[in-house]
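Incident review: delayed structure delivery

Summary: a single-chain prediction request sat in the queue longer than the usual turnaround. Root cause was a stuck worker, restarted by the on-call engineer. No data loss occurred. The affected request and its eventual output are reproduced below so the record is complete for anyone auditing the incident later.

Affected input:
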Amino acid sequence: MKQKLICAFSSLVLTVCVGCSNSDRDRAREKASEAKQKTREEARKLTQEVKQDVHALNQKINGALENHPVKSNDAGEARQKLKRGAEDLRVAGGQATVKLDHAATIARVKAKLATDMGLSTVTNVDVDASGQVVTLRGTVVSAEQKQEAERAALEVSGVTRVINNLQVQP
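Output delivered after worker restart:
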């Protein structure tokens, strides 16, 4: 009888632990999904900004050409203006690409943190990216969580270095 009671109690404890663990995983997946959605929205905004920049540069180029009709002796100047306009477009496109890459890296790191460490940890951690370097800021409850956050961020594709500025506050 005592063994049956111990067995039943153990089964109950195991069931509760598994249920909590599944619930935490579900919340982490939901948070990761929200982070992906937020990244998509940021990417759409950045894409719109790039389109606006391209449109503004096109207007400048067209305005320059309209205000200064090309004469045979002005052909070289017009070509230079067009080259500068094209270069400005390339620079704007490059800047947009960098912004999109940073946003994608941040979303991947946040999703990895949510999956590996749980929902409550991610809400206290800020992530920033610059190239392949990720910076973690915020608070965690233990030194182990601080190390785990750094490890999880390093596992994300494209991240080569993590600056771990997390503070331990039990």
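Verification: The beta strands are 125-130, 133-140, 161-168.
Action items: add queue-age alerting; document worker restart procedure.
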